[in-house]
Amino acid sequence: MRIAGAAKLVVVIAIFLLTFYVISQVFEIKMDANLGHIFARSALDAAARSTKPPRYKCGISKACPEKHFAFKMASGAANVVGPKICVEDNVLMSGVKNNVGRGINVALVNGKTGEPLDTKFFDMWGGDVAPFIEFLKSIQDGTIVLMGTYDDGATKLNDEARKLIAELGSTSIANLGFRDNWVFCGGKGIKTKSPFEQHIKNNKDTNKYEGWPEVVEMEGCIPQKQD
Prior knowledge:
GO terms for molecular function: carbohydrate binding; cytokine activity. It is found in: Secreted. InterPro entries: FAM3, ILEI/PANDER_dom, ILEI_FAM3C. The chain has 227 residues and is an alpha+beta fold. The protein has two domains: 1-48; 57-223, no CATH class. Helices cover 30% and strands 25% of the residues. The chain contains three helices and nine strands, in the order αβββββαβαβββ. The strands form two sheets. The protein has a five-stranded antiparallel β-sheet, with helices on one face. A hairpin with a 5-residue loop joins strand 4 and strand 5. The longest helix is centred in the N-terminal third of the chain and has 50 residues, at 2-51. Residues 26-33 have low confidence and may be disordered.
């Protein structure tokens, strides 16, 4: 009887050990599969991150060289969406910031540091051009000047205002008309005409919106002012 009982104990122990071994093998296989899945997923995530296109300041298409400031801007869309001006990844003016308005929107930036100095808009439909002229005259040498129209930026412009803007490097200001869309980046004390300017005429035959042309956008790299 004792021998039979011992034999049964041995069988029970053997079955237990066999069961434990089988379970451990299955668990190990599952662990290996899970680890393999985790490593594969990590490799795929790393590959996705490496192929994701880089983002440059203000969302421009390529990085600016050293000693240049990145900028991107857009005119207003009809009389619905205001203009947007971004410099060095800093949105200076936009409808979201609630600091844009009908007429000509202006942002001033320090030409040496890229720091924002001032933002203002001047109503060129129902307003007075005199405050705009005084503002233009007050801009200091070496200041970067960015301008964008919203709705109508030309009706109240006179020859004096146009001349002052032309001195900042604008070419198109002489022909800016009722409800034209226009964006411009120049500077006080500039010696040549600015390469940063876009202008679309208000033309009922080609307008994208009823009574207004399409939005104009522009991006680029502004050279830092050197001493």
